[in-house]
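Bug: token stream looks shifted between consecutive jobs. Job 1:
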Amino acid sequence: MSVQGTILVLDGVSTNRIMLKVQLTAAWYHVVQGEKLEGLPALVRRTQPDLVLTAQTLPDGTAADVKKAIVKEPGLDDVPVVAIAAQNDRDARLRALKDGLDDVLTHPFKDTLLMARVRSLLRARAATQDLQVGNGSQPVGFAEPAQPIIRPSKSARVDILTHTARTGALWQKALDDQRQFDLNWHLQSNLRGVLSGSVPDAIVVELGSNPAGLNILADLRSRGVTRHTVLIGVLKDEDAGQASEALDRGADAVCLGGFCAQEILLRLENQIARKARLDQMRVSLKRGIAESWIDPLTGLHNRRYAMRALDQIARQSARTGRSFAIMLADLDHFKAINDGHGHASGDYVLTQAAERMQNALGSRGFVARIGGEEFMIGVPDVSPKQALNLAETVCDSICQSPFLLPDHGAQVDVTVSIGLKLSQVGFAPQDCAAKSVENLIKSADKALYAAKKAGRNQVSIRQSAA
């Protein structure tokens, strides 16, 4: 997305394009113009638009053709495409929504509504891009092909919020006849009914002269549980001002001119499908982030996590004046296990050793695998005696009983050497924490070398200053 946002305007009528350009450039958007479908792929690849506004009918195609062309372009499949239809042409609006257009504006329209819709759609695309890698459409952490279009689940929950019970019942019946969603209705005065149950996938809110509906939109969008819920407002008339405010307060779409079951169902289908895709991307992103901190073999944290955790522990130590400990643990003669019993057995020993060390440490700190058979342990808020006792407990957890190799039925004795370094009380100012941690790790490494040199299967403490 460009700094100011690039909007592509497609219309075979030059005066329509000029009018839109004037409106959009006045709001500091960068506007690119086109008049037909021919040459569109090259145009969008060159200009990389963040939003497309297209006439319902072009000299050589339709808005639906534009949407299909945009979706095919790598990295642009999430660009919103809005059709501009003739005034009071509800059939054209429904047709555009059925064709998968992201929204429909009727011409002529007021600047306020146009700008509000532009802002809303650009926010939506920015949210999508936050979940993507670079300019592609692939979720973070995965090299698999792009996922197919996700359609809304038949069991998607949709709540209806209306001013009166009669309106709620009528709307539910009109939508329930389609049997696409799990529908519930509530009075707007009973917002608790929406928030107390399972989180709805979408909420349809009745808007009107009473500001309650607009306030509810803002409230729902600000809450953590409903932050990603689809919000659709319904206005009885063509009040562009209220529609604009609804969009700015968080509505994903606004239906003008009163309740129309067909339009609402189409908007729900499109918006919930988009939400399902974004929900999947969020899950992928969280999984990718989690996996980037985890060692895949042992399930322990990895070096990347360990360094970040030590930095936080060091900063905490600087604030509290309490010392912390760093331990480096290395399984003794581990190469002999791989050579004598195979790498699969070696991997088994690593996973079991990791489990034993984690159990020995408990919740006092963290254990991370930072190399082949090398582990790092960080323990905050600990005295020298406590740190030594923990290190000896970890050491004993490895050597106290042999490791039974599942594929061989053989038992192997394993020991571990540990280098321990305790930070000094007062440690270091927070802005020097990273360098001080690095020095402590070097000291712990020297202590580990000393433990190896002294005969292994023991804890060595580095006494010199870090």
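Job 2, same session, no restart:
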Amino acid sequence: MQYFRHLEPSVHRTLFHRSPETVDTDGDLATLAVGLGATLYVPAVREGLVDTVRKRAHSGVESMVIDLEDAVADDDLDAARTRVVAALDELARYGDLDILLFVRIRTVLDIHIVCEGITDGIAVLAGFVVPKFRSDNGGDVLTTVDELSARLGKRLLVMPVLESVEILFRETRDAELSAIHRILDEHRDRVLAVRIGATDMCGAFGIRRDRDLTIYDVRVVADTIGAIVNYLGRTDGSGFVITGPVWEYFADHERMFRPMLRATPFENNDAVTFRQKLVSRDLDGLLREVALDRANGLQGKTVIHPSHVPPVHALSVVTHEEYQDALSIIESGGGGGVLASGYRNKMNELKPHRSWAEQTLVRASVFGVTNEGTTFVDVMQALAKRRAA
């Protein structure tokens, strides 16, 4: 898989100081997890499921999830399972699907049905998303996938979704997260990334966040995200990549608060009209939340609409300034001290910033590095033009 491969070479030269590299889907898990980007969910009952997956894969989506859980009514579950098996086999026969494709299950039974039902489809199945992952059920799921992977001769990966009340409620949170960490650590080679189910967390308190707010304005959820990162997102070798929760809005609405996008970057790029389009589709809130995700230690994001993919990917590209700072820190060696940024606007502290620099260079290899003076606005405009073409 390779990001922005659907853009013309001339566009790459305009945007990138360093173009995205090809990511080996059978390679290093840490790099592959960063490469999830915007993970697009599609209901298993969607009409034209195969065409939908192929269309999105050819338009810049690099990871997708076929959803058997919340997106499927109970009465439709059996038919949805049959459709998933058939879709995976058909997608494999096309032979042109170069993305990470997962199935979100309800129970362990779904894993058996999919793995035992597919024939050619094993070639395109990356693994499973496991909702409501808890310490009392997670080990069984991971063991099942271990066994089926060995039987099928295919590395199948798991992305647990943390969204249960045991994690959300203060009196059980620490013990539950500690137990989950032990389970994930035992199956480290099977766990691609940890996902966060903020919608279910909000539901436990009867909350639905407004589109004028980010998930970080919902304190009970923001506190839980912080705890998840604290237990599972450490950079000492014990942690995992943790992805950002879903942004669920994609249509215009009457606003109570002013938009979250500053006008200046768009004015400087003669893109005022483009900014208005983003605001009209509530994408300013998504952009703000993606920035806050990264500030809080999360990478990538769950998305439920194709319009959400370009903003997430545009903000995933490493800026020329970030890249130069990261290189400077890494090339300085392992000693301490400080260096002035080549951009002459900050100090780079060599020891505290080293993990950040290492992660930034991984992101640079996956999403590329912008040319000096090129901004996320330029990247988003290029993606918007390609989508409209």
